Amino acid sequence: MTSAIPLVDLSLWRHGSDADRAALAATVDQALIGSGFLMVSGHGIAPELRARIRDAVREFFTLDPATKERYATAVGGRGWVPPGKEANGYLLGVELPPDLKESFVSGHDHSSGDADVDAEWFPPNVWPVEVPGLQALCDTYAVAMRELAAELLTLLAVAAGLPDSWFVDRCTDSPHTFNINRYPALNRTGPVEEGQFRIAPHTDFGTITILDREAGYGGLQVCTREGHWIDAPVIPDAYTINIGDLMARWTGDRWTSTLHRVLPPSADAPDEELISLIFFFEANLDQVIESFPPPLGQAHDYQPVMTSDYLRSKYAAIAVP
C-alpha cells in the first residue's frame, strides 16, 4: 500500500512537458484507484505559514476551558469543538469511545444569497479575541488551499479523462471546512479507553482532503484492500491528499475512499502532542452527484445524491449527543 501512495511533484504539472503531465495524471489515477491517497510536493505553500498557524492555535488550545467554551460549537459548526464531541466510530455502526482530540474550525467566507443556506453552510467564522493573529493566518491559508484544491481537481479531471475544468466548474461556490486538530499527549489524556483513537477508523465524506500533519507515534494509518493497517508515509513539506466518499461515488467507485485512522497517544511518547491542519474541499451544495457509468466507473447501483444532503447526514452521524 505504501508504494500505492506516490509522491507527486506539482511543479511538473505546472511547468513540465505534455508527456510529463500525462505521466503525472496516470500516476494519480492509479493511486486513487489503489489507495485513494497520494502525497504532493512542489505546491509552493510556505512552511512558515503552517508553522505560524500552529503557533497561534496552540495559544488558543492552551487557554482555560471556560474561555474556550465561549467559542464552542457542535460538529459541523465553526469555532471550538471540545474533546468528547466527535466519534467517527459511529460511522461504522460501532460504539467506540469519542475521538481523543479537540478542533478549531473555520470555513468559507461566502454568501450564497439565500439566508437559510448561509445560516447552515456559510455562518460567520468565530475568532478568539485572545489570539488576534489567528484570523489573518487562517484566512491566508484558506485562500491558498482553495487555489491548491482547484489545481488538484484539474489534475484529477485529466486523470479521469475529463475536460480540465470538469470538477472545478462544479465546485465554484462550494463550502470548505478548515479543521485544526489538536491531538493531546498521553500525559494530558490519561489512560486511553479500549477502542479509543485520536480519530477512529472512518472515510472522509466529501470531495478532496488536503492534510498537513506532523510525524509521530500516534499518527495516520491507512487500511489496505486486504484489511491491514499501515503507517501513511511522512515526507517533509509534502501534503497528504485523499478523496472522500462523494468523489469516489462520483467516479462510480473508479477511485477509492479509503478507511483511515489516527492512532491514540503512545506510551512510547507520553509527551507527544500533534497538530494537524486539515482542509476539506467540497462540491457545490446543490450539485447532484451522479456516478459515472462504465467504462469510466465500475458497475454500481448508486442513486443520485445532492452534496448538501450527503454532508448533512454525515455530520449528524458523528456528533456525540
UniProtKB/TrEMBL annotation:
Source organism: Mycolicibacterium cosmeticum
GO BP field: antibiotic biosynthetic process
Family as reported in the entry's similarity comment: Belongs to the iron/ascorbate-dependent oxidoreductase family.
Annotated metabolic or biological route of this protein: Antibiotic biosynthesis
Transmembrane helix among keywords: no
Gene3D superfamilies given in the database record: B-lactam Antibiotic, Isopenicillin N Synthase, Chain
Pfam family of the protein (one): 2OG-FeII_Oxy
Name of the protein in its database record: 2OG-Fe(II) oxygenase
Ranges in coiled-coil conformation: none
One GO MF term attached to the UniProt entry: oxidoreductase activity
PROSITE patterns: FE2OG_OXY
Chain ranges of the Fe2OG dioxygenase domain: 171-283
Keywords: Antibiotic biosynthesis, Iron, Metal-binding, Oxidoreductase
